[in-house]
Amino acid sequence: MAMAAVETGRYHRSYASELRLWNTTPQRVRMIVLAVVLIVLPLVLDNYWMALVNTALIAAIGAIGLNVLVGFTGQISLGQGGFLAVGAFTSAILTDRAGVPAPLSIMGAVLLTAAVGMIFGLPALRLKGLYLAIATLASQTVIVFVVRRWDWLTEGEGFVDVMRLEVFGFSLSRANFDQQWYIILAVITILAALTATNLFRTGVGRSFMAIRDQDIAASAIGVNLTRAKITAFGVSNGFVGLAGALMAHYTEIISWERFTLDVSILYLAMIIVGGLGSVAGAIYGAIFITFLPVFSRMLADELGGVAPVLSDQLPAFEHAIFGLTIIIFLIFEPKGLNRIWQRIKEYFRFWPFRY
Amino acid sequence: MTQFLVLLIYGLSEGAILALAALGFVLIYKATGVINFAQGEFLLIGAYTFYTAFVIFQLPILIALLVGVVVAVVVGVLVERLILRPMVGQSHISIIMVTIGLAAVLSSIVQMFFGTQPRAMPNLFPTGSVEILNGSIPANRLWTLLVAAVVLTLLTVFFQKSKHGIAMRSVADDEQAAMTVGISVRRIFAMSWGLAAVSALIAGVLLADLTTVEMGIVNFGLLVFPVVILGGLDSVPGTIVGGLTIGLVTQFTAGYLDPGLAGVAPYIVLVLVLLVRPYGIFGEKRIERV
């Protein structure tokens, strides 16, 4: 079993083996373990925890999207919340009012969000660092303002009621709502993660990374900066639009309050905590940040006897823990959970030696 | 005409406060290269410290102000020492995120102590109104404008003339060169954060006097970004012009067009400026090499 935990090295004897996504036995064993866990999860967890798992899966898709832009291409974005809103409202309105089947409307949301992302990505052609961060902050503010004030979107109600998801004539049941959603979301998340992983094995993905590492050098070796940056914004926001659309169908009610700047910050925290520039990291981070408030609440209950202010001011306490988590990760483990996991694997690989 | 005049004074007074808040941001960015997303929280802490000293402990106004300054300097220096110094050399994204985390921690600490209920503070300035050209202008707005102008002038003079101000500018210009002529870069870093916190304190107290002491002060801090982009990140006069412009834009939009639009108008101005001049109106264009 120890053999299954880590590999001792990677050797390739053919191109086919080099192109494989998982090429060592330990990796395959881990994937099987993961698959078993994913299958067992809905059988052991109750509805409360399943709802959290589903939320985490949706967040994972959004975080993968944001990581394509921030972690892999190096273009900081504070507009995540706004783009989630575009995806959510597009899909909700298409199904509810135009009667488009859900799978098609979600696809429509992906395409429209990608297009909107490309438009708001245009400033990135000339700006970087702080200036880009502030430009995306502006796009966040503008999108949320539009969503808030454009009465047509919500028919003047301020929110959109989304009907129960129906896929290919099969409507989700009320009793097994979270379990059925879990199957859908798990499949989509796995597909999204595979797509993103494979993206960075192609030329387009590599050009994104070249821009992150040194954009001027990248253009010197023939990367078309304009095209690559706009593509990165499009691809990234395609994932974000998917997450937004799924969020709309899952929560069945959407309003502008779900897409504020705080949401953008939440997603940035996910990829920082998980690990910038790593698909697996985005997923770890999404899970961590989704479950953080739950654990803060437990902690507040534990400490409530000593310091009642913690449970009285629970939202503030959760927010403080959230901020503290970001700071601690950035100072002590800037490469995030993904790096911690790699170090654990390395420890066992070299065991019983230190290095 | 009357409405124009009232909006003008309102815009200028809010713009002056914005300029003070933005000046702290520029100070930190220039000296240490850190993009501080927690500037709004410094305003918040300043306002609440002053409130605690002045209203809860009933201290005389000058002593309360002194307490505020001491707390602001301590918080600023501690933040620099404990959080930003370990981050030296990290990427833009990491530094932005660490200040976002800091903002979350600072605002929730304030919320834990004081709750979300807005608190009223006795007026610091005379409340009557002044008749100018048939329009009645609240006197406290004029006083705010006056105080902000004095503080901004003092800070400008400090940068131009004083030994420490010149040292700060030299560090901003070139850290290594500053070190070789014997300037302690560490002390300058600490000083920038302390000074930024003090200018935020004054901005926070002035804002609290115009409105109330409440968590919403943080949102005012976000307006710092349009201001610094408009004014360019390198210049103090630019920041003042940027602050006044954004203050006027907000007030005129609220007065003549739509109060709801006022929150977005600064960002629309921001996008327009970035489209035409990507490095702000007063900012210098940086030449990059591989």
Description:
The complex is a heterodimer of chains A (355) and B (290). By secondary structure, chain A is an all-alpha fold. Chain A has a single domain (45-350), classed as ABC transporter involved in vitamin B12 uptake, BtuC (Orthogonal Bundle). Chain A contains 17 helices and 4 strands. Chain A has a two-stranded antiparallel sheet. In chain A, strands 2-3 form a two-stranded antiparallel sheet. The longest helix of chain A is centred in the last third of the chain and has 27 residues, at 225-251. In chain B, α1 runs parallel beside α5 and α1 packs across α6. Chain B is globular and about 60 Å long. Chain B: GO terms for molecular function: transmembrane transporter activity. Chain B: It is found in: Cell membrane. Chain B: It comes from Garicola koreensis.
At CATH's second level, what is the architecture of chain B? Orthogonal Bundle
Number of helices of chain B: 12
Instruction: Going across the biggest sheet of chain A, name each strand in turn.
Output: 1-4
**Strand order across the biggest sheet of chain B?**
1-2
Cα-based radius of gyration of chain B, to the nearest Å: 19 Å
Morphology of chain B:
globular
The name CATH uses for the topology of chain A is ABC transporter involved in vitamin B12 uptake, BtuC
The tally of beta strands of chain B, per DSSP, is 2
- Residue runs with pLDDT of under 50 for 5 or more positions of chain B: none
H and E order of chain B: HHHHEEHHHHHHHH
Q: What series of H and E elements makes up the topology of chain A?
A: HHHHHHHHEEEHHHHEHHHHH
Sheet having the most strands of chain B? 2 strands, antiparallel
DSSP strand count of chain A: 4
Tell me the major beta sheet of chain A.
Answer: 2 strands, antiparallel
Number of helical runs of chain A?
17
End-to-end distance of chain A: 21 Å
**Quaternary structure classification:** heterodimer
Share of helix among residues of chain B?
over 70%
> What structural class is derived from the secondary structure elements of chain A?
mainly alpha
How would you state the average pLDDT of chain A, rounded?
86
